[in-house]
Design goal:
173 residues; mainly alpha
Length: 173
């Protein structure tokens, strides 16, 4: 199991890193909404290695059987690789590649809210995001938030993969 988790976890981490960089290079002039779609697509594509890792373990290492619990553990461990890689690359991006990202994104959100919300609601939302602004400009917070986002998606994919791939051992006499 350790070799499967390590191999597919590394595949997932490399994939999420490469797709993040490609998304950054291609998406520089795209809207934030489009960039967000690219980001979530990147997460889901890289987490497909959860399914393939569980299947590899079941078919090649465990005689065609895997319990739901074991499949979930394998999937979560593979997801951990991707989540740590994404958190790290996001911090590198915000700290070194685009240090103005938080300010630019904040300005965009404020403009969007100002154009779409009534004044009273706008002021309330503005006060809310203003209180959170410093928290989300922290590299540690960015790492935790991005890692948790990928890990939660990985958990969902692990659940689905575990349900699909679980198989009891065949008992022969």
């Amino acid at each position: 199991m350790k070799n499967t988790v390590l191999r597919y976890g590394i595949y997932s981490a490399i994939t999420i890193s490469i797709l993040f960089l490609l998304g950054w290079l291609i998406g520089k002039n795209l809207s934030y909404a489009t960039q967000e779609i690219i980001g979530y697509t990147t997460m889901i594509v890289s987490l497909m290695f959860v399914f393939f890792g569980i299947k590899q373990y079941r078919d090649k290492e465990n005689n065609g059987a895997v319990s739901f619990g074991k499949a979930l553990i394998i999937g979560m461990l593979i997801s951990l690789f991707a989540s740590l890689a994404f958190g790290l690359i996001d911090v590198i991006y915000i700290k070194y590649i685009n240090p103005n990202f938080a300010t630019e994104y904040y300005t965009h959100i404020v403009e969007e809210m100002e154009n779409s919300l009534p004044e009273a609601e706008f002021k309330a939302k503005l006060a809310e995001i203003e209180a959170q602004k410093e928290l989300f400009s922290s590299p540690v917070m960015n790492f935790l938030l991005m890692s948790a986002t990928v890990f939660i998606i990985g958990f969902i994919i692990s659940l689905i993969s575990g349900l699909i791939l679980q198989r009891k051992p065949i008992i022969t006499d």
